[in-house]
Amino acid sequence: MRMMRGLLTLLIASVIFLPVQVYAVDFSIPEVTIDAYLQADGNAEVVEKHTYDFPGKFNGMIRGLIPKRGSEITAFKAFEEGTLLEVEKIDGEYRIHRKGNREIVNVEMTYTIENAVKKFEDGTEFYWPFFDDRNETNYGNMTVRIHPPERVETAEFLGYGAAERSGSVDKDGVVTFAMGKVPSGSNGDVRVVYDNAIFPQMTLVQGSALKEMEKDRNMQAFLYDNRDTASVWGWLLFGVLALLVVWGMLKMRIVKQRRQREAQAQIPEGFFVPGEKLSMPATILYVKGGLFSSEMMVAALLDLIRKGHVEQLSENDFRLVDEEVEFEHERALIDLLFHKAGDGTNFNMDGLVSYTENELNHPAYNEGFAAWQKGVRDEVKEADLIEKKPKLRMHFILASIGFVVVAILFGIFSHFISMLFAIAATVITLVVGLVYRPRTKEGHVLYEEWQHFRNAFESFGDFNAEKWRSLSTDERLRAYTFGVGAQDIHIQSELDKFEQANARSKESASSYGFNYMYVNPVLLTTVFASATTTASASSSSYSASGGGGGTGGGGGGSGAF
């Protein structure tokens, strides 16, 4: 009967979320050609030709254009074979409406960049990002051409990112950046400097275009020429650091195995319930590895009942009997359940649900819940069951700093795959250095005793009703509480069978501290989980900010809808 009640509660509490599939338009852009015709007045007339390949239905194309600071995009139009298409502008995104199904569409886009160039003392510069790292679309073959206002014999130019080392100039001064395949998330700024004489209408500003370009060109050459050398040194340093990390991990493993053997040697054979060295919530937290759960909150309530501080009246109702508790976390839990969610003396599960449904109560609930968690952690901390090991932890932290250096080295020289390995190694070693807290000798004994207890239920030869009845009431209550808090279904089900049989036959419910016929861990866990989730939801917030872009904050990308 009790199992059926638990299953029914679990089914009612479970919520099945059917995934909502968002259908995105499937497309590719195999070819893009961009021609920027610089004008004598400093503007630029741009003609872009994009080839879209749609394997299914579509509603149109998207071109994102974000101008540099001080510039502006105007007069955007789109054509297909000379026919003007409808365009809708949303912020820096131009939506070109053109429905179809399984087609290859060639669309031509035209627009004006106002204030596209700057006239410096040593040349007039066009420095522009036609796409940037915010772009989410791959380009199969990208070509960008910059045309001067009139024919010139020479031009200085430089490409960045995807455009690096892709430029060339023809006899008329047209600079072509043949980038080829450009993956999504790439920057590709293009920079061209022409003679000031072909921009007579522009006003001169202070500064040097050629000197800044030359600095960037020298840096690119340095990085390119030393790329292989950097890779060799980077991997050598990575290997040395990896050996140090492996040595540290081996040392950790050796120490752990030695202490495990010493602890296991102190544990007697056969079935037994470990002695009470910590409260049950602290014991469960320590054995589980420092992770809280709603089941632990249930175990904490059962532990208060075991100690005589709380009396269970029914499946949903509880009464406070004695507030003189031993630990701060017990005081915090009583305050949360009986004084905040209850009337000071009585508390029931329906009242907890009603209490947390009121958003005005959420801060108080969250404060009480956090105080209970902190109290449990403090008890574990004060028990001196964990070592600090500062030297070994610092060993890993210093190794993580070394991996950061390697990652930066790889990143500077564009070894991005190698950089990812170095970043992964950084994260792993830093986490180990920050969280590594080995068990003390006493901690290993406590942990191994409860593991021995759990293993007894996996071997029916070691556990039977006679052995269970030979235990004291307190041992049985702690065993059951541990099974609930540790989320060990096997322990709960086995002990349920024995205790329900005892309660039905001859022993009164009150002799157990709490009534096994009343205790419903599934119901209690569900209500506690729901209350905590409801209360914490209102105090959670999400914020995101995006960065990136090409030179001057400009850029763009492509898409479809």
TrEMBL record:
Residues 538-561 are annotated as: Disordered. The chain crosses the membrane at residues 232-250, 396-413, 419-436. Residues 545-561 have a biased composition (Gly residues). The keyword Transmembrane applies. InterPro entries: DUF2207, YciQ-like_C. Keywords: Membrane, Transmembrane, Transmembrane helix. This is DUF2207 domain-containing protein.
